[in-house]
Amino acid sequence: MVRMLNCIYIQAPNVHEPKDISDFLTFIHAWLMLLHEHHGNEETLFFPWIEEYIGIPGYMAPNIEQHHAFEPGSQELDKYVVDCREGREKFDGLKVRAIIDRFGEVLSQHLADEIIFLEGLGKFDDKIDWGTLNKRIQKHAVSTADTVSCLL
User: Cα–Cα distance between 102 and 68 in angstroms, integer?
Assistant: First the structure.
């Protein structure tokens, strides 16, 4: 996710042709869908499942608090992309960068922190059935995957 965000940030000022702008907006939109779906699924499924296994309600709350810290910025970018795609805004790569500047660092820090936090769940290996949890996650991912919306 960070590499995709870096690509958006680096390339935004270089996109000028209408077809390229359209494609680039689709790329940003797809990245935002991935971001929102990833963190939404964590909050509604994965984190509660982890807390259920370990028996500690609220254990995953620090991650959720970080989600809330970058969410307004990602929603601002989402709105800008929709407005550009629907003709209410003219694409401006420097504006894309300015929006990312308001949340990118917080998001990047969250993604780095989250890896460390999740690795720390190893101390609960005696409580977490990782095989069953993985199957639950896979089943949900396959049954709810949206393969069309990012192209719209």
Answer: 13
Residues whose CB is less than 8 angstroms from the CB of residue 45 and which lie 6 or more positions away in sequence, other chains included? 136, 137, 140
**pLDDT tens digits, one per residue of 94-148:** 999 999 999 999 999 999 999 999 999 999 999 999 999 989 888 988 887 776 6
The sign of the CA dihedral 79, 80, 84, 85 is negative
pTM score of the predicted model: 0.88
Question: Which is nearest to 13 in space by CA: 91, 105, 75?
Answer: 91
Residues 52-104 have pLDDT tens digits of 999 999 999 999 999 999 999 999 999 999 999 999 999 999 999 999 999 99
Q: Which of 34, 65, 72 is nearest to 47 (CA)?
A: 65
Cα–Cα distance, 99 to 101 (Å, whole number): 5
Distance CA 150, CA 146 (A): 8
Could you state, in order of their start, the residue ranges of all structural domains in the chain?
2-151
Among 85, 115, 137, 148, residue whose Cα is nearest residue 2: 115
Residues sharing a CB contact under 8 Å with residue 29, sequence separation 6 or more, in sequence order = 78, 81, 82, 85, 150
Q: Contact 60/50 with Cβ under 8 angstroms?
A: yes
